[in-house]
Amino acid sequence: xxxQKYFTVLIxxxxxxxxxxxxxxxxxxxxxxxxxxxxxTCSCTINGTERVLTLYSNGKLFFKVLNxxxxxxxxLDITAVGFDKLGTLYCxxxxxxxxxxxxxxxxxxPGLNAIFISVNNEExxxxxxxxxxxxxxxxxxxxxxxxxxxTYPTLTMSEMxxxxxxxxSPTPTPTPTxxxxxxxxxxxxxxxxxxxxxxxxxxxxxxxxxxxVVKKKAGYSCLSIGNKVTSKYKLAKGKLTWKGSSKSKxxxxxKSAAFIKKSGNLVFLTKKGKVYTLSPKxxxxxxxxxxxxxxxxxxxxxxxxxxGKKFINIANK
Length: 317
Hints:
3 helices, mainly beta, 5-stranded antiparallel sheet, 2 domains
């Protein structure tokens, strides 16, 4: 009788073990089936360094500089990508908007920039892009085509520098040399005493612009005006922590955040599509109630927010 019970328990243990192993194998197989796959890689070499773009099936786009520690997740929901001959990357997102970024000009400010219809209308990006146009060898991007059939070339170096506020390299201006004249006889000069000026000169004070910069320190993005840090924030796993001179705030469900240069306000985008500003004194204000998708940065500062397929200027918020 005891042997029969022992045998029954043994059979049950074996069955449970096999079931557990089967569940583990199925779970691993399901996990592997759901893992994103690489759908495209492309590379280029500029200034002796090779850069590689990797686009995954889930729309994630990674940029890597080989033989260095530089690696960035640039964006999500990307459908097409490529380099031009200047090393500028171009991509199309799921909203059919064309975007670009140049590592050599903005390695410290990674982020994809929209291309606008005209320099005088920076609220509407080109958002009906069908495909990237490649050269004859299918190596480099030379332009892009919209669904309506319009084609546009890639940006020039001067246009990209203008976007990043980088002075274009001008042609050096020669310094004129004053002609040397030797008089035949030195004229006699009679010294004279100039009349005394009884009116005090008017002195115009020189306007000094204090530089604003954003730097990383101890996990925080810090806004500094001159040598003084006015406020700072960190964003991790959707949780935003902000610290001002005398106050601190915490928010959850946050997608992205950045400082606005002119006002010093922090702007942040929630996962529900709302956009708020937070003043250096901690005053919160909603500026977009719905459909906010992405903050557009320029030199680490927020300049626009994408709302649906339009872009709203927030540089003065």
